[in-house]
Amino acid sequence: MVRKNARQAASPLTEWLPALILFLSTLILWEGLVRGLDVPRYILPSPSEIGAVITQRWQDLVRQVAWTMLEAIGGFLLGSILAFLSASLFVHARLIERSMYPWAIVLQTVPIVAIAPLLTIWLGFGTAPKVVIAAIVCFFPVLVNTTRGLRLVSAQALELMQILSASRWQLYIRLRVPSAMPFLFTSLKVAASLSVIGAIVGEFTGADRGIGYVVVSAAYRLDTPLLFAGIVFSSFAAVIFFLLISGIERILLFWPGARIED
Amino acid sequence: MVFPGSPPVIALQDISLTIRDKEFLAIVGPSGCGKSTLLRLVAGLLQPTEGEIVVHSKHPSQAQRDVEFGFVFQDAVLFPWLTALQNVILPVEILGKRSPLPVQEVEGVARQLLADVRLHGFEAHYPEQLSGGMRQRVSLARALVYQPSTLLMDEPFGALDEITRDSLNLLLLEVWEKNRATVIFVTHSISEALFLADRVVVLSPRPGRITTIVDVPLSRPRTFDMRFLPEFTFLAAELRKLLQLPAEVYES
Ligand SMILES: Nc1ncnc2c1ncn2[C@@H]1O[C@H](COP(=O)(O)OP(=O)(O)OP(=O)(O)O)[C@@H](O)[C@H]1O
Ligand SMILES: [Mg+2]
Fold first, then answer.
1. Among all ligands shown, which has an atom nearest to the Cα of B29?
2. Can you tell me the distance from the alpha carbon of A204 to that of A188, in angstroms, rounded to the nearest whole number?
3. Number of H helices, E strands in chain A
4. What's the number of CA atoms in the CB half-sphere (13 Å) around residue A1?
5. Atom number in ligand 1 closest to CA B1
6. In terms of CB atoms within 10 Å, which of A254, B85, B116, B177 comes out highest?
7. B143-153: burial string, b at 16+ Cβ within 10 Å, e else
8. What's the CA gap between A218 and A53, in Å, rounded?
9. Could you tell me the pTM of the whole model?
10. Does domain A45-252 have CATH number 1.10.3720.10?
11. What share of chain A is helix, strand, coil (3-state, %, to 5)?
12. What is the pLDDT of residues B102-131, one digit of tens each?
């Protein structure tokens, strides 16, 4: 408690300063080594070369990454909503859960990179397969966590609702859903990062736009600085998406003690 | 009452008890003798394997549907995402049309109940921001808000320290005088039972049977000084002997 207060009291500058200093010194070291050892550009470009590519092409890069994020967010929404609905179905019908849950777990172990080409064959080179891949990778963590959260209500809370003859809907909406919220958001933050990876994997297997396409074609032409610029932009976008979900979590999980520390 | 399993657990046996309207009945007994089970049977949360329970000439599950019961658990079981006031209002919102109290009036009643349990000024606090004793008082207010005819309390102050427990006992009696309901109060504490109740039921170790029922010869309103009266100390000693008696039973 005391430590937490002390941390909150620290200004953002002192909080972030050590990380910033480490970042800048790494860049300087990197630059120095690349220049000093004369490393070829196609193996490892220096930060200044990457920076030059970014300043030169940032408009195009932003457009490409925005496209990827659109696919990722679409898949994220699709996957998370389906997962939430399935979890809700599971807690109300044990039989459905018993027949489907084990298969959900088995399906989760299939590597997504192996399914991606198949989806491209089925759905073409457009947006659809990317959205679907992002949705698949989001589905499982959200399903598992939400099912757990919806179930994890105390026996006494259930008895309290029974004393009040609450309907199944009231039990679900007033007790189960709010108790599941912290679990849901923990998984949504994981899903946010996964959805970006999913969309990029989808672009690898066939696309004519998106940051995944930029990275693949840059690699093909050994344009390593552009490849690095693509990495920088996609990580940046993933971080922003993560922060967005964290922000929504902060608003929706308003009550003290709600957030599961991570 | 028998719980299935291997071996099956006989939790209660040969229980025959008539509870008077508006009386304060305390139940004491060793751990695991079936006190909570008895409350759950009365509330219609469990069905007896044998025998019959009648609540106001109704079957418990019918009485449950008519929202005759208020239940206070050992843990407060407040919803952490609701403020103290919202927690107290919750039952009326769930009951909707079935609530004896119109939804428009509930906020005023809930505020008054929170004031009665000395929580004025804490209406907007979340459970996490309240102490254990405060949470238990919110839980009491929540059980009373829809004016149930029967209040079932399962060791409501069992997890609290003695000083808090004493003051909550007084408070409970004060609130009970205002909202007269039949109370069945389960406790481990002999002095708590005697201090609060009109009658005390003593249960034997598992399988729980009624060892004895004592009338408490103390006038109301009760005060702490009464605990030093000879009748009080005598009864307390008697009950303690009754509860210790079955030591051989544990060993065999
Ligand atoms: N749902 C259940 N299934 C199986 N056995 C149960 C169940 N509930 C209670 N029991 C058994 O019934 C017996 C009585 O339990 P109960 O909770 O009523 O005791 P208690 O008198 O309230 O004890 P305590 O004072 O420790 O709360 C115990 O031996 C317990 O193991
Ligand atoms: Mg008990």
1. 1
2. 24
3. 11, 0
4. 1
5. 12
6. B85
7. bbbbebbbbbb
8. 12
9. 0.86
10. yes
11. 85, 0, 15
12. 888 899 999 999 998 889 999 999 999 999
**Residue ranges covered by each domain of chain A:** 1-39, 45-252
B60-64, B188-192, B197-201, B248-252: the lowest-pLDDT one: B248-252
Instruction: Name chain A contacts of B64, Cβ cutoff 8 Å.
Output: 162-163, 165
What's the CA gap between B50 and A93, in Å, rounded? 31
Q: Which of B208, B204, B210 is nearest to B11 (CA)?
A: B208
Rounded-to-integer distance, Cα A165 and Cα A143, Å: 29
Is residue B250 scored above 60 in pLDDT?
Answer: no
pLDDT (mean) for B64-89: 93
Rg, C-alpha atoms of chain B = 18
* Contact call for residues A66 and A235 (beta carbons, < 8 A): no
The pLDDT of residue B151: 94
- How far apart, in Å, are the Cα atoms of A174 and each of A143, A161, A166? 20, 10, 10
Enter the tokens of residue A134: 């992002």
Q: Is the pLDDT of residue B252 over 50?
A: no
pLDDT value for B245: 60
Contacts of A187 (CB under 8 A, 6+ apart): A141, A142, A144, A145, A146
Give me A24's structure tokens.
Answer: 């800048």
> Which pLDDT band, with edges at 50, 70 and 90, does B251 fall under?
very low
Q: Identity (one letter) of the amino acid at B204? A: S
Burial of A183 (0-12, 13-18, 19+ CB in 10 A): buried
Task: State the Cα–Cα distance between residues A241 and A247, nearest whole angstrom.
Answer: 10
CB contact under 8 Å between A159 and B65, yes or no, is no
Q: Are strands B182-187 and B199-203 parallel, antiparallel or unpaired?
A: unpaired
Which residue, B148, B151, B150, B44, is CA-closest to B100? B148
According to DSSP, the residues that pair with B25 across neighbouring strands are B184, B199
Q: How much is the pLDDT for A175?
A: 96
Query: Atom 5 of ligand 1 has which residue's CA nearest to it?
Result: B3
| C-alpha torsion angle, residues A63, A67, A72, A74 (rounded to 10) | 130
Q: Which residue of A has its CA nearest to B152?
A: A163
Under-50 pLDDT residues of chain A: 1-7
* Residue A253 near residue A182 (C-beta atoms within 8 A): yes
The reported pLDDT for the residue numbered A9 is 55
